[in-house]
Each structure stands twice: as C-alpha cells, then as structure tokens.
C-alpha cells in the first residue's frame, strides 16, 4: 500500500502521527520554497484560503518514518510552463529537500496532477524514478508506467474500497494506492474515515505499507530477476527480493540462486 500526500502543510503533522500509530508509511510530496511560510490561495468565489507549511527544520522529525518526495518547488502547473522551467521546478525541489534531509529524493507527485508522456520523460532525467498523477483507476493493479503512475483513489473514497481489498485472496502482487492532502481533513467526517481506514490497514497482516520510492525500487528489482532452467537468480547489483515458495516465503539476496522444482503460472 502507498499513501501519498501533497503540499506539506502543517496538517501533515497530525496525519504522519496517525500513520506512525498504525505503523504505516506515507510518501509526503513537498514544495520546498513554501516550507515555513503561510501562503494565500485565492478562490473562485472571492474567498482566500490561507495555508501554513511545515517548517524547514522539522522535516526529519515530522516525517521521520516516512518518505519525503518532490512536488515542484513552487507548485507550478507543468502543463503551462517550458521544459526548462519544469526541470528547474523539479531540480530545485530535489536539491533543497536533499540538503534538508540528507536523503535521496526519488519520488514526485505532479502539481495539480498534470502531466503527459513528454513531461514524464523529461523528469525521468532528473533522478526521479516515479511520478504520481491524480487519475484514479479504482483498481489494485501495479502501474503500467512508473513515471505516470495512476493511483487507486483519493482518500475520500478509500474506505469504500478497503473491504474489497482486504478480502482479496490473490497470489499476484496488488497495490492499493491512496492519495490526498492533509489540509482536507478539516472536514471532521473525512478525518474520522481516515482514522478508521488506517486502523484497519494497520491491523492487516499481509499488507506492506511502503514509500513510493522503495516500492518502485522493489518492482524494478523483480524485473531484473533471471529465471532459467528452474533456477531463480538475483543479480549481484540488485536488491534483495522475496519469493513465495510452497514451503513459505524466502528472501533471495543479491548474487544468490535458488533451485526450484516447478513454478506457479503467475511467476
Ligand atoms: Zn499540490
């Protein structure tokens, strides 16, 4: 399961705490230039919404157990700006977040969810290995493209889909991918739905709650596995992978080979 949250406003503090309580891992997509500031967002009806962003010096405290990811340094719409500016938005965000956290920044959520094949290709030159859209699929399948990764659904619908997911008994890998904004949890009903959702997921024994970057690396590692003559080999420069054997789940470290008798069709 991936839980991907955008913008880095101070409501992330409460959400990250909820994830921590349930041993869940979030992916938090931040706009580095807004860290520590209060910003006004003019609304169509004439109102103005003010948003407060988390302080720069607290990232490693708030997001201690979570992945920190990019969301464009100034949240510009990539569909409205030149390639040069897109790269600047992404690279500036990566640099700033890397400096503040000392961690590799490899995931990104597109501001306003806006992207296309050429933008995705452009950004894949920056060190980003996955890019999330807001085009909900309402499915639990793995992504077709890491750089145009369509989530399962927005968190406002996540609870509706959870029992179907928990009841699935599928041998193939599946993914429940939820996205949203913590500032939307000002709506009390939605917050309590999220609390319920996290409590249930936290209790599930067969869900791996993981950052988008770590999941991407793992899926790529699976692609690198060599299967020949009933032997499964994990290349030396790969990551460790887990194999579901009739005797149980076994970890296969890089450089190791395992001999098996027969293979299930879904492998
Ligand atoms: Zn955003």
Ligands:
zinc ion
Strand count: 14
Q: What share of residues are in beta strands?
A: 15-25%
Supply Rg.
20 Å
What would the average pLDDT be, to the nearest integer? 95
Output the helix-strand order: EHEEEHEHEHEEHEHHEEEEE
Sum up the structure in keywords.
TIM Barrel, 7 helices, alpha/beta, binds zinc ion, Polysaccharide deacetylase family protein, 267 residues, 30% helix, Glyco_hydro/deAcase_b/a-brl, NODB_dom
Summarize the structure in words.
The protein is an alpha/beta fold and 267 residues long. It has two domains: 211 residues, Glycoside hydrolase/deacetylase (TIM Barrel, Alpha-Beta Barrel), CATH 3.20.20.370; 36 residues, no CATH class. 30% of the residues lie in helices and 21% in strands. The protein has seven helices and 14 strands. The longest helix is centred in the middle third of the chain and has 19 residues. The two termini are 21 Å apart. Bound molecules: zinc ion (ZN). Zinc ion (ZN) binds next to strand 1.
Question: How is the topology of this model organized?
Answer:
Elements: E1 2-7, H1 12-21, E2 26-30, E3 38-42, E4 48-52, H2 59-62, E5 67-70, H3 83-101, E6 107-109, H4 117-123, E7 130-132, E8 153-154, H5 155-167, E9 177-180, H6 188-203, H7 212-223, E10 226-228, E11 231-233, E12 241-245, E13 248-252, E14 257-259
Parallel strand pairs: 1-2, 1-9, 2-5, 6-7, 8-9
Antiparallel strand pairs: 3-4, 10-11, 11-14, 12-13
The protein binds zinc ion.
Zinc ion (ZN) binds next to strand 1.
């Amino acid at each position: 399961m991936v839980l991907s949250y955008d913008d880095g406003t101070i409501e992330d503090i409460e959400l990250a705490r909820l994830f921590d309580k349930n041993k869940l891992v979030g992916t938090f997509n931040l706009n580095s230039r807004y860290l520590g500031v209060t910003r006004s967002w003019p609304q169509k009806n004439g109102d103005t919404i003010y948003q407060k962003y988390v302080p720069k010096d607290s990232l490693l405290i708030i997001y201690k157990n979570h992945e920190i990811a990019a969301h464009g340094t100034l949240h510009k719409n990539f569909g409205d700006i030149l390639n040069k500016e897109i790269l600047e938005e992404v690279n500036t965000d990566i640099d700033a977040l890397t400096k503040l956290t000392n961690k590799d920044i490899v995931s990104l959520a597109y501001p306003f969810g806006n992207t296309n094949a050429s933008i995705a290709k452009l950004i894949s030159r920056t060190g980003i290995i996955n890019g999330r859209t807001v085009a909900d699929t309402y499915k639990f399948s793995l992504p077709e493209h890491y750089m145009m990764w369509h989530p399962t659904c927005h968190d406002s619908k996540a609870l509706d889909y959870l029992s179907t997911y928990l009841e699935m008994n599928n041998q193939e890998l599946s993914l429940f991918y939820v996205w949203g904004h913590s500032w939307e949890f000002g709506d009390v009903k939605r917050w309590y739905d999220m609390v319920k959702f996290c409590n249930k997921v936290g209790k599930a024994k067969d869900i791996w709650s993981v950052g988008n970057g770590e999941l991407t690396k793992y899926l790529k590692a699976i692609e690198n596995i060599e299967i020949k003559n009933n032997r499964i080999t994990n290349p030396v420069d790969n990551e460790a992978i887990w194999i579901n054997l009739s005797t149980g789940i076994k970890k296969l470290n890089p450089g190791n080979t395992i001999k098996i008798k027969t293979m299930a069709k879904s492998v």
